[in-house]
Amino acid sequence: MSRPAPSSGISVLTVQRRAAELMETAGVTTHIQLGAEAVRRAWV
Fold first, then answer.
1. Separation CA 40–CA 29 (nearest Å)
2. First vs last Cα of the chain: how many Å apart?
3. Does residue 19 or residue 10 have the better pLDDT?
4. What are φ and ψ of residue 21, in 5° steps?
5. Residue 23: count of CB within 10 angstroms of its CB
6. CA distances from 34 to 9, 12, 15, 21, 24 (A)
7. According to DSSP H, which parts of 1-44 are helical?
8. In this predicted structure, what is the pLDDT of residue 10?
């Protein structure tokens, strides 16, 4: 997995926490499911 945090000035822990929050909100258990759900909900 690439690590976007250092280049953007956001800590890795912050990215991991935010991903976990989004996964809970979307009701999914994997990052792949989160990506699909984000598209479905027009988050991206």
1. 16
2. 19
3. 19
4. -65, -45
5. 16
6. 23, 18, 14, 11, 9
7. 5-8, 12-26, 31-40
8. 87
- The C-alpha atoms of residue 43 and residue 40 are separated, in whole angstroms, by 8
* Radius of gyration from C-alpha coordinates of the chain: 11
Place of tokens 């250092």: 6
pLDDT > 90? residue 2: no
pLDDT band at 7 (very low <50, low <70, confident <90, very high): confident
Residue 27 token pair: 């009701």
What residue has token string 């990506």? 35
